[in-house]
Amino acid sequence: MPHINAAAALQISMLLFALPAQYFIAQWYGADSAERSQTTERLIIASWSTSTRSFLSPAAWADRLKLWLSKMRTCLYLELLILHFRNWYYGENKIKSGDNEANPHSYFAESTHVHSPKPEHIKFCVGQVIIHRRFGYSGVIVGWDVKANTPEEQLQPRYPPVKQDLKDTPHYRILINKANGFGKSTAYVPEEEITVIMGLEVYHPDMETYFSGYDGSKYIMQPWLKKLYPHD
Which residue pairs from 178-181 have beta carbons closer than 8 angstroms and sit at least 24 positions apart in sequence? Predict the structure, then answer.
């Protein structure tokens, strides 16, 4: 079988197109002006009829709306599946991984052990919205430690000699409100540096992982987080 290159294929296509084109030209120019006017009128009427059926017909728009709603429902269902998977992966799956305090991810109030009983000297709760007293950013508490739980090499530069006592005070993990434009997305701070406020909502990409809603005073924990902090 002979090989047909691109140039040959183009020539064949032009020859095939020439036949109907030649017929149309012959029909158009072989007729008198009255016949050409009638042909033009028929073409215009046919185009208008097609456009009317496509764009001015309520039935056509109803079909388009049904198709659009179907696609929206599909997208919403996929988003819900993704959210459910994220909550499971970061929540229940994290708990099932075990209560291993030697795990490096147990630093900065990310331990997976159940925080019970809750010591009376810990003032704040998971889900409360706070403002940092020195830096002014807002955020929401997602975890706490009875005292600073950070790698040893970070304790010394973080707490100079005059602030050594802060190491033994409660520390909180914070999701920083994106509306502040602070740059960092999380913080780990001692209790004396934050104060609780109400009526302020926090915007952060991980909010739905930790919380299911906001009641005006604090955020409602997801079930997996409530298991870790049953008294908050």
Answer: 178/203, 178/204, 178/205, 179/138, 179/203, 180/136, 180/137, 180/138
Paired strand residues for 32: none
**What six digits make up the tokens of 134?**
């020195």
In contact, 78 and 212? CB cutoff 8 Å: no
pTM: 0.57
DSSP letter, residue 172: E
42 Cβ partners below 8 Å, 6+ apart?
none
18-66, pLDDT tens digit by residue? 555 555 555 555 556 666 566 666 666 666 666 555 555 676 667 767 7
Nearest to 136 by CA among 188, 193, 175: 193
- Buried b / exposed e along 84-94 (16+ C-beta atoms within 10 A): eeebeeebeeb
- CA nearest neighbour of 202 among 224, 218, 183, 225: 218
The phi and psi torsions of 125 (rounded to 5 degrees) equal: -125, 155
